[in-house]
Amino acid sequence: TFKEAQARLCCSILQIRASERCEARYNRFNKNVLSPVRRVPPEILSEIFEWYCFSEKKDVTGWRHDIVACYVPTLVRVCVAWQNMAHGTPRIWSKFCLDSIRHHRVFEHASHGCWIGGWLSRSRGVPLDISLNFTVSHWGKS
């Protein structure tokens, strides 16, 4: 009957659309896997990360800790592969700055400082360059 034929056609259309969505997901996956950045050897990508975090961002003392703290989180948010690579690049975690004014939440609530342990543990024995700035006027607040 006409209704049965119509139902079969609707079912076929739904199957074709589902197949198209599956193929589109497959193509997006392959595009990501085959992208040129995925073919960069890990040691080269690690060097690129270090360059990104450290070059041309120095002050008169030779280091801008606060800027590194801005760039490292950017790297780990790009994709899971970059997050894993950044977590496996100890040198970018070896620079650390803690400022009582800029990072006041760390001093006001202990739970806001839980990231410090993770940051330092990712340095994996690389010599640390730590900058601590505790402003006296900040400690006078209640």
How would you summarize the topology of this molecule?
Elements: H1 2-33, H2 42-54, H3 65-76, H4 80-87, E1 95-99, H5 104-108, H6 114-121, E2 129-133, H7 136-139
Parallel strand pairs: 1-2
Helix pairs in contact: 2-3
Structural features:
two-stranded parallel ribbon; elongated; mainly alpha
Question: What does the model show?
Answer:
This protein is mostly helical and 142 residues long. Helix content is 58%, strand content 7%. It contains seven helices and two strands. Strands 1-2 form a two-stranded parallel sheet. The longest helix has 32 residues, at 2-33. It is elongated. The termini are far apart.
What's the total helix number? 7
Q: Low-confidence segments, ≥5 residues, pLDDT <50?
A: none
String of helices and strands: HHHHEHHEH
Number of strands: 2
Mean pLDDT, as a whole number?
78
Biggest sheet: strand arrangement: 1-2
Portion of residues within helices? 55-70%
Which structural class fits the helix and strand makeup? Answer: mainly alpha
Principal-axis shape equals elongated
Rg to the nearest angstrom? 25 Å
Approximately what portion of the residues adopt beta-strand conformation?
5-15%
Report the major sheet. Answer: 2 strands, parallel
- What is the first-to-last residue Cα distance? 82 Å
